Amino acid sequence: MTWAEALEWRARQTMTVVFTNGCFDLLHPGHVLYLEQARALGDSLVVGVNADDSVRRLKGPTRPIQAQHARATVLAALNSVDVVVIFEEDTPIDLLQVLQPNIHVKGGDYQVETLPEYPVVSGYGGQVVIVPFEAGYSTSHLVSRILNHHGA
């Protein structure tokens, strides 16, 4: 969905809108559980997906493994996800300012007060919620295992 389409969708929402974001390069059970937890906090879930250039800046030159539209397509197929929007920046601050979700969810490795998005979300009256990660799942770990297994 484009930003304009997402904004039109958001304008029609009268219930609690939850937002989360990430690279979601190789979707794994930890992602699925995280997205289900996020969705359970409200009536709909918007997922912001880092664009390919943003993933390269954040994760390094060998990432992403899957192109942004492939990642968005897989996420959009999940029952817990209502809307997927790709963003070019390294943080979703601009997208949060546009959509102003009621709740912004991040994974357990963040602290609310140090999150770059916190001032924006609290500024429009939204709430930031940290949900725990499911132990044992990591895209970086999966990539490492694949590379080591195949001798690359």
Q: Care to describe what's here?
A:
The chain is an alpha/beta fold and 152 residues long. The protein has one domain (3-149): Rossmann fold, CATH 3.40.50. It has helices at 3-11, 29-39, 52-59, 68-76, 93-99, 118-123, 139-149, and strands spanning 17-22, 44-50, 83-87, 103-107, 127-131. The chain has a 5-stranded parallel beta sheet with strand order 3-2-1-4-5, with helices on both faces. The longest helix has 11 residues, at 29-39. The protein is globular and about 50 Å long. The model has no long low-confidence stretch (mean pLDDT 89).
Keywords summarizing the entry:
Rossmann fold, five-stranded parallel β-sheet, 152 residues, alpha/beta, 5 strands, 40% helix
Secondary-structure map with pairings?
Layout (H helix, E strand, L loop, with lengths): L2 H9 L5 E6 L6 H11 L4 E7 L1 H8 L8 H9 L6 E5 L5 H7 L3 E5 L10 H6 L3 E5 L7 H11 L3
Parallel strand pairs: 1-2, 1-4, 2-3, 4-5
Question: Helicity range of the residues?
Answer: 40-55%
How many strands, which pairing sense, and closed or not: the largest β-sheet?
A: 5 strands, parallel
Number of strands: 5
β-strand percent reads 15-25%
CATH domain fold name = Rossmann fold
Structural class: alpha/beta
Rg, alpha carbons: 15 Å
Please give the CATH architecture: 3-Layer(aba) Sandwich
Distance between the termini: 36 Å
Gross morphology: globular
Helix tally equals: 7
Number of domain units: 1
Low-confidence stretches: none
The CATH H-level homologous superfamily: HUPs
